[in-house]
Specification:
This protein has about 250 residues and is of the alpha+beta class. The protein has 2 domains: about 110 residues, no CATH class; about 110 residues, Roll (Chitinase A, domain 3). It is about 45% helix and about 15% strand. The protein is built from 7 helices and 7 strands, in the order αααααββββαβαββ. Strands 1, 2, 3, 4, 5, 6 and 7 form a 7-stranded antiparallel beta sheet that branches. α1 packs across α3. The longest helix has about 35 residues. It is elongated, with a radius of gyration of 25 Å. The two termini are about 50 Å apart.
């Protein structure tokens, strides 16, 4: 259980550090676009950095840990949080042991995750019910929904095939998380090696056609999500052009 507490702190610190690195990278990219005239200009004198105070460092820890806790969805009592931190830092007898604290945190995280899952499931069911009523949208037995954007009379793939496609994948809010169009190169993959929604959906297509798919989270990445790109319990939207059946 002690590892859980340490993991929270490590995750917070890493998150804070990664955001700082991203900001630095953006600054470097911006500098790279300067004109030669600007580069030739004499740089302004920089003031020496002000040494961080204990208050600065403490606040930074609060921001990092607070960000991590906020993302879990767990609600906390700030007074109790500060007291627990102070008792530990001052080596006073705490109300709970580190092991007990870890157990409490684990329980809270599981409860918060369960609440998120219930809310997401209700929102997903509502979306698919409404989307399925739209003209041109078909719902399969698995819950996958699709719309034929461009029909064709080409060959139809089976699960054992490898296909070449162009596609754009977005979340319901319109955020693009993947696109072969952006990469400038079609994707080639075996239908048995992708998420279930893709395996089922592409088999409905014919070479030369273009479909739009709405994939339930259960046929995508479920409650695990996919890294920082696709949140847990996400409905995925794909526009797919089936270019060819490779084998």
């Amino acid at each position: 259980m002690k590892k859980i507490l340490i993991a929270v702190l490590i995750a917070s610190t890493l998150l804070y550090s990664c955001k700082a690195k991203d900001a630095a990278a953006a600054a470097d990219a911006k500098d790279a676009t300067k004109t030669e005239a600007a580069d030739a200009a004499a740089p302004a004198a920089e003031k020496p950095a002000k040494p961080a105070t204990k208050a600065d460092i403490a606040y930074a820890f609060g921001v990092a840990i607070g960000t991590s806790i906020k993302e879990t969805g767990v609600e906390i009592d700030y007074s109790a949080f500060v007291k627990g931190m102070k008792d530990t830092m001052e080596s006073k007898k705490a109300k709970v042991t580190v092991e007990e604290a870890g157990s409490l945190i684990q329980g809270a995280l599981m409860e918060a995750q369960a609440k998120k899952a219930v809310a997401a499931a209700a929102e997903e069911a509502k979306f698919f019910e409404e989307n399925g009523k739209k003209a041109g949208v078909t719902t399969t037995a698995s819950g996958l929904q699709f719309e034929v954007m461009k029909p064709s009379d080409g060959a139809k793939p089976v699960a054992a095939n490898t296909v070449k496609v162009d596609y754009v994948g977005t979340l319901l809010n319109g955020t693009t998380f993947d696109s072969s169009i952006t990469r400038g190169e079609p994707a080639v993959f075996p239908l048995e090696g992708v998420i279930p929604g893709w395996t089922e959906g592409v088999q409905l297509m014919t070479v030369g056609s273009k479909y739009k798919f709405w994939i339930p989270s259960a046929l995508a990445y479920g409650d695990q999500g996919a890294g920082d790109v696709i949140p847990a319990n996400s409905i995925l939207v794909f526009e797919v052009d089936l270019l060819s059946i490779e084998k």
